[in-house]
Amino acid sequence: MGSIGLVIVSHSKHIAEGVVELISEVAKDVPITYVGGTEDRGIGTSFDQVDRVVSENPADTLLAFFDLGSAKMNLEMVADFSDKSILINRVPIVEGAYTAAALLQAGAELSVIQTQLSELEINK
């Protein structure tokens, strides 16, 4: 397996930027791309923007984090068309992304990261 990176998808530009600002403090070497809000600076997500940030991330495998349902839906659609392995995580966006970023920076294996994330999973 190649490199592992993170993709953050939020309905809000401020949420996405805030999550990236936080996790960048513990994961300076982890490839992170993100999108928040719509192209017209509104609240929402779009397939095209999610596809762009997935493509821009240099990693082969992406751990994806989202805030609400349509962000997940756009990630799922992009995953269907992408050559990259995209692992969509149903966890709180801040805690999940932070956990994954810190573990990646520490050199943890993907299986260890996924086990840790499974403990944060939202089941509803």
TrEMBL record:
GO terms for molecular function: phosphoenolpyruvate-glycerone phosphotransferase activity. It comes from Streptococcus mitis. Homodimer. The dihydroxyacetone kinase complex is composed of a homodimer of DhaM, a homodimer of DhaK and the subunit DhaL. It comes from the Bacteria. Its EC number is 2.7.1.121. Residues 3-124 form the PTS EIIA type-4 domain. Pfam families: EIIA-man. Component of the dihydroxyacetone kinase complex, which is responsible for the phosphoenolpyruvate (PEP)-dependent phosphorylation of dihydroxyacetone. DhaM serves as the phosphoryl donor. Is phosphorylated by phosphoenolpyruvate in an EI- and HPr-dependent reaction, and a phosphorelay system on histidine residues finally leads to phosphoryl transfer to DhaL and dihydroxyacetone. InterPro entries: DhaM, DhaM_N, PTS_EIIA_man-typ, PTS_EIIA_man-typ_sf. Keywords: Kinase, Transferase. This is phosphoenolpyruvate--glycerone phosphotransferase. It catalyses: dihydroxyacetone + phosphoenolpyruvate = dihydroxyacetone phosphate + pyruvate. GO terms for cellular component: membrane. Signal peptide: none annotated. One of its GO terms (biological process) is glycerol catabolic process.
